Task: structure prediction
Amino acid sequence: MNNLLLEEGDTVTVENVTLKQGKEVHIQPFETRFTESNVTKAVLENALIPFACLSEGDVINIDCNGQIFDIEVIKCVPEKAIGIIDTNVKIEFLPPKDYERIQQQKQLAAEKERAEKQKAEPKRPEKIEHKREEPSKPQGDNDPRKNRLDFTVSSRKK
Result:
């Protein structure tokens, strides 16, 4: 009743139709944690046992070790509704609906960590280059340009 959005006492009209056997179904988990869990082929097959057919837009609840995962049927081949009894159906998983948001959060966290590491790194002393300038003309022993050192101070760039 949950998949049909019905409550007890609602009126239901049933129509008998013949569906083609499914060849392929594309499903998309709602949460990334589904891909990180131990949902096996057997668990997925057991979750589909109560279903005689699948339609695009159906949401299936899978119970795996006490965790409930919602999965949406995005595409069915050869038609929008397919029969899945006594047939081999290829299942293709699409990226979870929250995948982009999770990736952005991970990227922001990594950037924040890098920035904190840069703040925590000790600053390196500035590089000092020593250059000895040769006098242009010898002007005797008291020439102040003799043995003079010029310093150029530059900071290191990362």
Notes: The longest strand covers residues 67-77. Residues 147-155 have pLDDT under 50 and may be disordered. The beta strands are 24-29, 53-55, 59-64, 67-77, 81-83, 90-93, 127-132, 149-154.
